[in-house]
Amino acid sequence: MERVKGIDVRYIDKLQHEAEIDIKEDVKWVLQIYEPRIDIEDVKIKVAEQENGNHHIFTLISDT
């Protein structure tokens, strides 16, 4: 079954800057496939809790 939502666990062991690039591309791909009505302007990743490794993903979109 294809993964539709969520972050691929393979990103966990990558360096942070490498993982961020891959995650951003993954987010864009999922949105382009499953929400073709929107334009993706930007994807940002913000550290929520450094000690726990929690991150938030923000996507700036606009209607087409």
> What form results from the Cα inertia axes?
globular
Residue windows where pLDDT falls under 50 for at least 5 positions: none
- Rounded mean pLDDT is 82
Q: Main sheet?
A: 2 strands, antiparallel
Helix proportion = 25-40%
Q: Gap between N and C termini, in Å? A: 30 Å
Structural features, described:
With 64 residues, this protein is α+β, with helices and mostly antiparallel strands. It has one helix at residues 16-34, and strands at residues 38-49, 54-63. A two-stranded antiparallel sheet has the order 1-2. β1 (38-49) and β2 (54-63) form a beta hairpin. The chain is globular and about 40 Å long. The N and C termini lie far apart (30 Å).
Helices, strands, pairings?
Blueprint: H1 16-34, E1 38-49, E2 54-63
Antiparallel strand pairs: 1-2
Give the gist of this structure.
30% of the residues lie in helices and 34% in strands. The chain is built from one helix and two strands. It has one helix spanning 16-34, and strands spanning 38-49, 54-63.
Task: List the keywords.
two-stranded antiparallel sheet, alpha+beta, 64 residues
